[in-house]
Amino acid sequence: MSHSPDTLSPTVHLIDDDQAVRDSLGLLIGTVGLRVQPWGDPQAFLSDFDREGIGAIVLDVRMPGISGLSVLDTLVAQGVDQPVIMLTGHGTVDMCRRAFKAGAAEFLEKPVNDEVLLEALQNAVRQHVRSRQRNEADRAARERYAQLSEREREVLGLIVEGLTNKEIGRALGLSPRTVETHRANLFAKLQAPSLAQLIRHYAALVDAQDTAGPGGGNGNGTA
């Protein structure tokens, strides 16, 4: 998946109906090198913001037309993964509880402490970057795993269980040389530089395949 430079640059979406708040918080957030996209209309934000981008969302709780909690519920329902920091000038315990239960990363009261907000934002952006990296690595691993033949998946499953080539050969009725060929092929297809890396990135996929049972995969042969 290709990304534009803007998508790769962390962006904080700042949603508040108060222009003065947007201006002051925008200046503050910019001091730590984060791009800021201000939104005065939460509906416009929900319609137009870049869901593929890296960053975080700063969301005011009380806005005319639609509340910040309703916006948060919509984001969660749509599967948006950017962390959300809620801001409110009239916070209650119940409101805080509802925000966290709905998936907010942080809940801060206005007037917000500058350092607290910046720390929360930087933590949120780092969390989002790590999450996207994990998801990308998982996706790539699944795609590589899908390229294995059924026989290569069988060999991989036994490698993950700790069997030697000789033991794998006996289990599958193959010669050690044939096992070594399958082993070399699957290591190459999975781009695994070592046995430890192979197990780390693919053991869970092997377990999932075993759980799915025969026919659960989409291998391209049984050679």
Describe this structure in words.
- The chain is of the alpha/beta class.
- It is built from 10 helices and 5 strands; from the N terminus they run αβαβαβαβαβααααα.
- It has helices at 5-8, 19-30, 42-48, 68-77, 93-102, 114-145, 150-160, 165-172, 176-190, 195-212, and strands spanning 11-15, 35-39, 55-60, 84-88, 106-109.
- The protein has a 5-stranded parallel beta sheet with strand order 2-1-3-4-5, sandwiched between helices.
- α2 links the parallel β1 (11-15) and β2.
- The longest helix is centred in the middle third of the chain and has 32 residues, at 114-145.
- The protein is elongated.
Query: What's the total count of β strands?
Result: 5
Strand content: 5-15%
The topology string of helices and strands comes to: HEHEHEHEHEHHHHH
Q: Indicate the radius of gyration in whole angstroms.
A: 24 Å
The helix/strand class is alpha/beta
With strands numbered from the N-terminus, the spatial order across the biggest sheet is 2-1-3-4-5
* Shape type: elongated
Number of helices: 10
Major sheet characteristics:
5 strands, parallel
**What multimeric state do the chains show?**
single chain
* Amino- and carboxy-terminal Cα gap: 32 Å
- Which blocks of ≥5 consecutive residues have pLDDT under 50? 1-7, 215-223
Helix content: 55-70%
- Arithmetic mean of pLDDT: 88
